[in-house]
Amino acid sequence: MSEETLLTAAHRLNRFFRIDMEKGGLVVDETMQAHRILDREIEAAKAGKPHDAALLQPAVAAARDFHADMTRHGGMVATTTEIAFDTLDKAIRAVGGRKGEAVHVG
After folding, report:
1. Burial class (CB in 10 A: 0-12, 13-18, 19+), 64
2. What is the pLDDT of residues 50-87, one digit of tens each?
3. Nearest-angstrom CA–CA distance, 59 and 53
4. pLDDT tens digit sequence for 27-45
5. Based on the number of CB atoms within 10 Å of its own CB, is 21 exposed (0-12), middle (13-18) or buried (19 or more)?
6. Engineering a disulfide at 91: which of 33, 41, 44, 58 sits with its beta carbon 3.0 to 4.6 angstroms away?
7. Which residue, among 48, 31, 38, 47, has the nearest Cα to 9 in the 3D structure?
């Protein structure tokens, strides 16, 4: 198994969040676990672990908003959280984290 990175953790949470939203908005345990992993990778990046700098701030915003929704807002996903995840998705694509969707110039 390869090492967890900020990119892989962000990609996983983003993917699980999107699946949950497509299935009616119920957040499942796997998504909560992905959030905990992303939080660890954010802290590691802030402590000096190598990471894609363009990804850190969008990951922090998505993790923060997701946490707020799950703890203070009774699990209701706010519009700001959806925007944060859209921004995270764009950052993941920008650093090449979604190779299957990348445009290949030939």
Report:
1. middle
2. 999 999 999 999 999 999 999 887 778 889 999 999 99
3. 10
4. 889 999 999 999 999 999 9
5. middle
6. 58
7. 38
